Amino acid sequence: MNRTKNLFNNKGIVILLHGLVWAVLFLFPYLLSGNQVDIYRISESIWIPLILYAFLFYVNYFLLIDHYLFSKKIPVYILVNILLIALLFLVSDWTKSFFPREPRPKDLNLPPEKFFIYLNSISFLIPLIFSISLKTIERWQRTENQRKEAQKIKLESEIQHLKYQLQPHFFFNSLNNIYALVDISPEKAKESIHSLGKLMRYLLYETNVELVPLQMEINFMQTYIELMQLRYSKNILINYSFPEVSEQIKVAPLVFITFIENAFKHGVSSGKTSEINFKIEIDERDITFCSVNDFLPKDKSDKSGSGIGLVNLQKRLDLIYRNEYLLETRRKNDQFIVNLNIPVK
Prior knowledge:
The longest helix is centred in the middle third of the chain and has 60 residues, at 125-184. The relative contact order is 0.07. The protein contains 9 helices and 7 strands, in the order ααααααβαββαββαββ. It is rod-shaped and about 110 Å long. The chain starts with 10 loop residues before the first helix and ends with a strand. The strands form 2 sheets. A 5-stranded mixed beta sheet has the order 2-4-5-7-6, covered by helices on one side. α1 (11-33) packs antiparallel against α2, α2 (39-69) packs antiparallel against α3 (74-95) and α6 runs antiparallel to α7. The protein folds into 2 domains: 7-146, no CATH class; 154-343, Histidine kinase-like ATPase, C-terminal domain (Heat Shock Protein 90), CATH 3.30.565.10. It is of the alpha+beta class. β6 (326-332) and β7 (335-343) form a beta hairpin. 61% of the residues lie in helices and 13% in strands.
């Protein structure tokens, strides 16, 4: 999750920005005038209008836009602003009586006074438009943040649901393995139950997070492979190469175990020796998992798995890594090969 606070949600920054903008607007004409400061003229022509503009801006920003414009009461909003602008125009005209004014020269071809009244009235639309624009942007930003948060919650729920499906699926497959050992070798069955206990502790207590250390996943896979070796010790050759990795390298939990399950499910024969190979390689940017096993399709009478493992895994990869991962599966010379490449987190 992105923990950086949005600019519009940080009230301290918003207040500071508003203060800076108004400070610049009030001080800019004073700074431009240099040594020729005419306080009366600046006050009449700039500061008092700015105060009225600020009043109109914030009345709309804090009150009118939310109560009327965003509530679909547009005629009321327009009427209230017309009355408000008329009132502010009268206040502006009234304040001019406090400042000495020179009579207009009659010989100059100046626009009629009605033109200046019209221009002054139009100028009040500027803070009104700014307040509507800023409020609309803030509202859009909040809506977008809420949409992203809802999408994130939905994504997490979907991932959690898929993991809850995977856990009983994995558990049932493991129980099938132990059941096969009970009559053949009770001692190995006991060892298997102990190993299964470690696997289930990891499933139940360590995988309820977005990412887990890759080393924990490797330990989990090694325990599972050892469990399978107890069952298929006579007719299977298992090779795996898993590196010792830093605790800082993390992956989504349970992204490799489905391939390992399928390798044992489809790559082991009771009539001949089979070979299964697993390998993990890591560089600065990517983690690559490779699985190679003999391809021995299951008999229709074999109900050892429901087939949901690969489907769920594909969904989880899409949800977690989106288009940042690469999954390739292919058959070559009666072997089934899997290559999964995911980014280092």
